[in-house]
Amino acid sequence: MAEQARQPEQASPEVQARVRASFDRQGLMALLGARLTRIAPGSVHIVLPARPEVTQQHGYFHAGGTSAIADTAGGYAALTLFPEHAEVLTVEYKINLLAPAAGDHIEAVGTVVKSGRTLTVCQLEVFAAQDDRRTLVANGQQTLIRVNRPDR
């Protein structure tokens, strides 16, 4: 992680535009109401506001929504380090749900641990936020594969 501490706080405008354009094509993120809040080299944050449609029967954020924004944050964190012609696909991920997710919103943070020529590994964290309190409610790890952008 020390390697990332030396990197710029924000990704370049070109990388930010590429990540935002790809995110905007994700129907699930739109359906959930998720939004990108930070795009930096090797790190992406996604916020999911609380609404009844993203909760489970006890009123907590549903694990499906929690997992979806974690997976997406990791994928875009990897994409920030890829060349322009590349895309990303999740190969696998594992997530541990540590506590019930309750609050104004949840925030997923995807952070690249190791970026390789073909495979990239990311750390996934999800925090529940209420006022000025943040609680880690899920963490995990993800492996992604870099693929060439298909001709559209």
The low-confidence runs, each spanning 5 or more residues with pLDDT under 50, are 1-5
β-strand amount: 35-45%
Mean pLDDT: 93
Note the main sheet: 6 strands, antiparallel
Describe the structure.
The protein is of the alpha+beta class. It has helices at residues 2-5, 13-24, 27-32, 63-79; strands spanning 35-40, 43-49, 86-97, 105-115, 119-130, 133-148. A six-stranded antiparallel sheet has the order 1-2-4-5-6-3. The longest helix is centred in the middle third of the chain and has 17 residues, at 63-79. It is globular, with a radius of gyration of 15 Å.
How is this structure best summarized?
The chain is an alpha+beta fold.
Name its key features.
152 residues, 26% helix, 6-stranded antiparallel beta sheet, 4 helices, single chain, alpha+beta
Give a topology summary.
Blueprint: H1 2-5, H2 13-24, H3 27-32, E1 35-40, E2 43-49, H4 63-79, E3 86-97, E4 105-115, E5 119-130, E6 133-148
Antiparallel strand pairs: 1-2, 2-4, 3-6, 4-5, 5-6
